[in-house]
Amino acid sequence: MNNGYMALLAPAGGDVGETFPHLVNTMNAMCMRVRYTSGDMTLFGTEDMPALLLPGGGILIGHLFTQDGITIDESARLPEHSDQTQIRKHILETYWGAYLIIQPDPRGPGAFTITRAPSAAGNLPCIYSIRDGSGFLTSDISLAIEAHLYRKQIDWDFMRHRLRYPGIKTKRTGLADLIELLPGCSLSTSGTDISVRQAWSPWDFVAPEHRYRNPHDAAAQIRHAVASAVRAWTDTDQSILLELSGGLDSSIVAACLRNSHSRIICHNLVTPVPGVDERQYARQMATQLGVELHTEYLDFDKARFDFTPPPDSVIPAMGPLQYAVNETMEAAAERHGATAYYSGGGGDSVFCYLRTAAPGADAWTTLGLGAAITAVNDLASLHQCTLWKASRLTLSKLRRPPPSPYHEDSSFLAPDMKTVERETHPWFMAPAHALPGDRERIFDLAGNQLFESQAARGSSKPMRFPLLSQPVMEACLRAPSWMWIAGGRNRAVARTAFSDLLPPDVVNRQSKATYMSYLGALYERNKHQIEDFLLSGRLRSQGLLDTRAISIFFSKPLPTRDRTFLRMFDLCMVENWVRHQP
Asked: Where's the Asparagine synthetase domain (predicted)?
């Protein structure tokens, strides 16, 4: 349990001990003790959970760093503010980390404001269930279940939404009456009144007044932000298992680990089929770190469709590939005595790896014809297409209405399945006249908040995504999309920023590993089991699947390059999760 916590809210004027009898004994048995009390709230946390008392009352739990990556601990004093709102604003604008702020609200007894850090990079979730002024907030639903504060029940409306809109992160969970406080949001509660607002927005950093004008300034600021973020986390963790793919993103994380005081173990995954073997690149990075590159083979028998989800799982998020990777990395961490996992996950989104003509459209809208011509040339070079095609796609991007962040998929779902209201994410609320590239990368960035749920190994040891740290996101968002394709290279600003720290082969490579061959072979080996799994499960019994369409699909050979089988993996992910719920 990493910095596990649970905050209990008693009804206004009530007592936690009376409202939740025997709770203290139960929490003590789980190695949780009282870390903070204020009015009607009592906060339990692990002994080693970092905590910082705030000026004017309140507490911050989790890790807090300066912009230069220096840890702010309980011995430090934050500037005094009499206004609770100003304290939150100061923390959000001056510091960063993986934290939760709990503050008594001046509206009166029983009123509190809870703010979650903007980044999901460091493993401090917040899920809650509050009704009539009473309830809990916790990092791990299994704590509330063990304390008899919550009993699992599937939210089938959420499941319908999840099936129709896969890949969308929302505040709702797959369990009834259980909500997640999303990164960068604040929850205010006062008796029966509950409200959530956005405390931090990525849209602030793509505004024209914050945009970098010079690519060299952009590269320098991004390098500083990434290096400081990695250094901050390594000062926290003693022994790191770096999931080093050999791609640009994980290699940048590796480059920032040089001269770290932590012990570094580099691991690379290889599959039985082509597509993922990047050892030639990963080995060069490991050599620069002066460590051995350990290779793990992701055999087909490691990927499972039917497995028990982690106890803290509140949404379907792990498929067969994630399960295989998770089991493999967990075994490696135990074998090497690693205390934390590090990943370059999120790099594509943060480093603006767009696959559309949006950068050309952005340059035209912002800087005019000359910049647009340069950007279109870069697009043509990047995508190995004609200048005419790149120009046509750019004009099309300018003329068409912006695409929706929702990618509806009704394939293989029952035609008469009950419709559900579409859930949103706060980052989907784009300002008027937002640039196409900014829309695409921020929508994509929101999807990265699913990573915590997909990496179950983070339940036992911290799972760090340094590239999703707040200062890295802010610095990268300030670089406009056309800078990221300069010279016909994807993620160009990041390549420039770290060119002297990476092997030339890594800096200059344009290819990316893909698990598609592995997943295709996995499907062919298991297609009959997958069919039985779906047609004998709970999704079918709930009338959510088009069983005839599923049977027809499995009865035919899979056409070359047809990726429809990935939808079957997604349905299996949901089916597996609901099978393991009451």
From this structure: 222-578
